[in-house]
Design a protein that fits this description.
The chain has 279 residues and is α+β, with helices and mostly antiparallel strands. 22% of the residues lie in helices and 28% in strands. The radius of gyration is 27 Å and the shape is globular.
């Protein structure tokens, strides 16, 4: 049912321990003796709490020297991609865009791929965008009325799999996996897979703008009602399908996973600065 086309904070932290009510060495030095044999009388002194400022990052990808390697974080990259896709959709389908997201797709071989997703009134667009050349490489169109199931949950693998990942994701079905051919299932470059699996982009915490468009929960909350409306509008044509939303483990059926191990460790599915080569 899908079609694929190609075209060209700082936080203060007190160092004083709990229960540390004993006067410090500085307090003792501030006491005066009024005379021989008299008890020392403490002066009223103003003590400022000893604080230090430390930058607390929500995750390691928030570190600037890491995030700069991803071209999507560079100024104007996301804005250019949005304008390109808006223009293309306006010319080809004239549909109203309801949302724009940047997520990571996990394919059926557990390979990570950076993707832009757009939801319109009738269609889910999945775009492979080159943030280096600032151009759309591939655009997949999935009618919302064809989507019948959405699964949310943690990733699961066969017991003997050597290539596993942690975390949670979302899987969208517009066809039955049982009807998928054996050749398509075991072909890592197949475009005939009747579902797509997504998780949050690693640059989620880089900026407030990316935080908004990289949230899986935000994408889900927009996608589900859009599908329900599309199914309701198509009910007049004899389509009695309903959307099912499940919470269950998302199975990725890989065993050895050598290709995904190499690709994911080197972030080959992202537009990434990989250093200079020269003499």
């Amino acid at each position: 049912m899908s079609t694929i086309g190609s075209f060209e904070g700082f936080q203060p932290v007190s160092l004083k321990q709990e229960g540390d009510d004993q006067p410090s060495e500085t307090d003792h030095l501030s006491m005066e003796e009024e005379g021989p044999g008299k008890d020392p009388v403490p002066k009223q002194i103003s003590r400022q709490p000893s604080v230090t400022e430390s930058t607390l990052y929500p995750n390691p990808f928030h570190q600037p020297y890491v995030s700069r390697k991803y071209f999507v974080t560079r100024p104007g990259a996301i804005e250019t991609a949005m304008e390109d896709l808006k223009g293309h959709i306006a010319e080809t389908s004239e549909e109203t865009i309801q949302g724009f997201w940047l997520l990571t797709e996990i394919d059926h071989w557990n390979n990570e791929k950076e993707k832009i997703l757009l939801v319109t009134d009738k269609t889910l667009f999945i775009c492979k965008y080159d943030f280096i050349m600032l151009s759309c490489v591939q655009l997949q169109r999935i009618p919302l009325s064809a989507i019948y199931r959405i699964c949310l949950g943690k990733f699961a693998f066969p017991g003997i799999s050597l290539d596993k990942r942690q975390g949670e994701g979302l899987r969208i079905y517009w066809g039955s996996p049982e009807q998928q051919s054996l050749l398509s299932r075991w072909n890592p470059w197949s475009t005939e897979v009747p579902y797509a699996t997504f998780t949050e982009h690693p640059m989620k915490y880089t900026s407030e703008k990316l935080l908004d468009i990289c949230k899986l929960s935000g994408f889900t909350s927009k996608l589900v009602p859009a599908i329900q409306n599309a199914l309701k509008n198509s009910a007049g044509s004899g389509n009695g399908k309903r959307l099912t939303v499940l919470t269950e483990p998302i199975l990725i059926e890989t065993y050895t996973g050598l290709m995904s191990f190499i690709g994911n460790r080197n972030k080959l599915g992202y537009s990434l600065a990989r250093g200079s080569i020269g003499f």
